[in-house]
Amino acid sequence: MKILIADDKAENRYLFEVLLKAYGYEVVSAANGVEALEMLRQDRVGLIISDIMMPVMDGFKLCRVCKQDERLKDIPFIFITAAYTSEKDEQFAMSLGADRFIRRPIESDDLIGIVKDVVAKQRAGHTPSLPAQEKEEASYLAEYAERVVSKLEQKVNDLEVEIAARKQAEQQLNQYTEEVEDLYNRAPCGYHSLDKDGVFVRINDTELSWLGYTREELVGKMNFADLITRDSLKAFQECFSHLKEHGSVLDIEFDMLRKDGTVLPVLMNASVVKDDNGDYLMCRATVYDITERKALQQELERQARTDSLTGISNRRYFMQRAEQELGRSRRFGHTLSMLMLDIDFFKAVNDNHGHAAGDMVLILLAKIACNAVRDVDVLGRIGGEEFAILLPETDTQMAAQVAERLRQEIETASVPIEQGPAIHFTISIGVATLRDDDAGIDALLKHADQALYEAKQTGRNRVCIANAGTHPMPAQATEGGACDE
Ligand SMILES: Nc1nc2c(ncn2[C@@H]2O[C@H](COP(=O)(O)OP(=O)(O)OP(=O)(O)O)[C@@H](O)[C@H]2O)c(=O)[nH]1
């Protein structure tokens, strides 16, 4: 048996078709009453299932025309509607000669049950009780107009409610968008997004203010790589490739360049945003200004390397640098010499003038030694009143000359004190040069220390050279006293 479906919604027609075909019915469908009538006049149909609200010709009119047509009036007619759901709607529909009135939603099983029932009754010769054509035309039109107008009023009401709800949703959305924009722009960190080439797509106010650019100068114009220092560029490019390949990067540190050329150290986290096909769309990055942290870190590192009283390298850092220099001199076959310095009778300075005055002496010694050596030399305070100087690419003779010059400078220097004459002091110096059989820096230090001991033993205020038998004493190292170990 063939069933005609009249419904303006394609998805409804499709669902009916699938369902009814599954139960062995043939199905034809029309999008409105006029189309339905054309089909009914060309084809033999056993049942009409019609929506009510349709354009061109609605379901009420379709039913009335069918029931007035001799060839169509016996075809059973079922209304199915989601819009005309009141009792009056049903009464009016049934008054037109319909067999059934179904309100949506309805379960498939129930719908099929009704279809089977209506078909069975029709086969048994049953016809609807009150065909519409028996009603007066005027009363039909009045009722029809009432049904349509009440439906239109309801529709207008529904639309007004919907419009009000949409306006409210739009307002909320605008408010939310403003809030998100505000949070994005005023965040305490930088936010930016880059396209696949690294060009800015978006950037927040915070990061713009750090960098000193306007949004117009960056977005769509500049590549992020243009804002990276030369030293950080390689690391950044590797990080960007990793990001595109793996989808995210965490805690990457590098230096950015502000518009005024100054450096901005940053820490960055980034993740990739993909399109529906899974292809790279853009990356979003969060950037933190780590200037203060870097400065603090550098300060802590400096403090860890530095003797707090004199400001020169402490023993640990001196030994670290000395190991590096030893490696270099061995690699390039250069000579390497060491001076060990110790203040003579320093205990007496403390005892006679106080610890603070002793500190001033240590500070002055460090200052003079610092000025006396080259940039490549390594100066350190390795004990209370003991200092060491490592002299790269320096043989014994040159080292002894440096030591003697320093000894003389100290001999003529003095520390003024508030009461009494200024403090004069002297130093003893041991000199050693790295030998092939020296195992390391400790051996070199030991030899310099032995020479220093010798200088102390032989009268102080003098320079002594380790293994002087193999290294002749320089002529200059004589004034305050010089000796061979
Ligand atoms: N003011 C001051 N004194 C220090 C400091 N570190 C060590 N000293 C002192 O340095 C002195 C070293 O004395 P000694 O080892 O007896 O040697 P010395 O008196 O210099 O005698 P010689 O080395 O034999 O000439 C001690 O009195 C220490 O207290 C410091 O940071 N400040």
Structure description:
The protein has 485 residues and is α/β, with parallel strands linked by helices. It folds into 3 domains: 2-135, 3-Layer(aba) Sandwich (Rossmann fold); 190-289, 2-Layer Sandwich (Beta-Lactamase), CATH 3.30.450.20; 306-484, Reverse transcriptase/Diguanylate cyclase domain (Alpha-Beta Plaits), CATH 3.30.70. It contains 15 helices and 18 strands. It has helices at residues 10-22, 33-42, 59-68, 87-95, 108-123, 137-186, 205-211, 215-218, 230-246, 291-305, 315-332, 346-353, 355-372, 396-412, 441-457, and strands at residues 2-6, 26-30, 47-50, 77-81, 100-103, 190-194, 200-203, 248-257, 263-274, 280-289, 336-343, 378-381, 386-392, 414-415, 423-424, 427-433, 463-465, 482-484. Strands 12-13-11-16-17-18 form a 6-stranded mixed sheet, with helices on both faces. A 5-stranded parallel sheet has the order 2-1-3-4-5, sandwiched between helices. Strand 8 (248-257) and strand 9 (263-274) form a beta hairpin. The protein is rod-shaped, with a radius of gyration of 50 Å. Guanosine-5'-triphosphate binds next to strand 11, helix 12 and helix 13. The modification 4-aspartylphosphate is found at residue 51. InterPro entries: CheY-like_superfamily, Diguanylate_Cyclase, GGDEF_dom, Nucleotide_cyclase, PAC, PAS, PAS-assoc_C, PAS-like_dom_sf.
Write the layout of secondary structure elements.
Layout: E1 2-6, H1 10-22, E2 26-30, H2 33-42, E3 47-50, H3 59-68, E4 77-81, H4 87-95, E5 100-103, H5 108-123, H6 137-186, E6 190-194, E7 200-203, H7 205-211, H8 215-218, H9 230-246, E8 248-257, E9 263-274, E10 280-289, H10 291-305, H11 315-332, E11 336-343, H12 346-353, H13 355-372, E12 378-381, E13 386-392, H14 396-412, E14 414-415, E15 423-424, E16 427-433, H15 441-457, E17 463-465, E18 482-484
This protein binds guanosine-5'-triphosphate (GTP).
